[in-house]
Amino acid sequence: MKKHITTIMAAVFCFSLNLKAQDNVAINATGASPDPSAMLDVSSTSKGLLMPRMTTAQRDAIASPADGLMIMNTTSNCVNIYLYGAWQDMFCGTPPPPPVKLMFTTVGTITGNMSGGTAGDALCQAEADAAGLTGTFKALLASATGSPLDRWGAVPGDFASGIKAPNNVVIANNWADFSDGNLTQPPNRSATNTIVSGNYVWTGIIGSASGDFTLNPNDCSNWSTTSGIGSRGQVSISNTSWLNSFTANCTTSQHLHCVQQ
Questions:
Q1: DSSP strand pairing (205-206 vs 40-42)
Q2: Average pLDDT, stretch 29-55?
Q3: Is the pLDDT reported for residue 90 higher than 90?
Q4: CA angle 145, 148, 154 (to 5 degrees)
Q5: Residue 131 contacts by C-beta under 8 Å, 6 or more apart in sequence?
Q6: Does residue 223 contact residue 248 with C-beta atoms inside 8 Å?
Q7: Phi–psi pair at 61, nearest 5 degrees
Q8: Residue 226 DSSP code
Q9: 3-class DSSP state of 200
Q10: Is there a single domain that holds both residue 146 and residue 56?
Q11: Non-local CB neighbours of 251 within 8 Å, separated by 6+ positions
Q12: 33 in a domain, yes or no?
């Protein structure tokens, strides 16, 4: 055992002497020598250099940071460098834009009693799943709390890249463009990109230039009853009538527009 320990210690000692004798160090898979101008020369075609990652609070807890010290700030998603007595941003990543969202019209129909809209969402999701579409789809319906965004728990920025039809035509460039009531083509395509033969969809909303939809009070009591009337739009029209075109008794069955979340 003593012989083995002595051998290991001798190897460590020789390795240490070898490091001290070097002016610079190369880390690579080829055994290439380091560039004479570099203290540390790291090269690879399959891996990167990963600097320490920490939160702003952890960064600020570093005692007496040296000028030039760098870290990846996971709070701000920025590469930070310490210079002139303060931490500074070198580079900050920009989140990618959201994907273009898809809207289709259901082949199936439903009465105005949609359990507050959740039954309409279920119809949308069922047809999306059957067509092999990915993601969550919800019915384009207003609710008692506000516009479809409020019912979905979404924000306009979620649709900043636009909304497209199943034939990949962008029908609106963003939420404001979508909610002004005018589309580039009629919203009459199903989840499988066939033309929906029906005429009307439940909506409960009116197009508006305000940046969001205006609510229509005719909504089958927040889509929870077959009593009264509900507002509906036409699937074959791309002007404001696609949202608001007459009313219908809540006992009748209408199609729905379904929007990817």
A1: unpaired
A2: 93
A3: yes
A4: 95
A5: 104, 190, 191, 192
A6: no
A7: -85, -5
A8: S
A9: strand
A10: no
A11: 111, 112, 226
A12: no
Residue 59 has pLDDT above 80, yes or no: yes
- The domain of 88 spans 49-95
In-domain check, residue 36: no
Judgement on whether residues 136 and 178 belong to the same structural domain of the protein: yes
**3-class SS letters over 131-188:** CCCCCCEEECCCECCECHHHHHCCCHHHHCCCEECCCCCEEECCHHHHHCCCCCCCCC
**Look-up: residue for tokens 């066939």?**
194
Kindly state whether residues 65 and 157 are assigned to the same domain: no
Residue 188 belongs to a domain: yes
CA dist., res. 145 & res. 154, Å (int): 13
Residue 1 has pLDDT above 70, yes or no: no
Q: In the predicted model, what is the mean pLDDT of residues 114-127?
A: 97
Q: Which residue type does 99 have?
A: P
Tell me whether residue 255 is in a domain. yes
Q: Which two tokens stand for residue 30?
A: 């080829």
Both 219 and 106 in a single domain?
Answer: yes
Nearest to 40 by CA among 15, 23, 65: 23
Residue-averaged pLDDT of the chain: 90
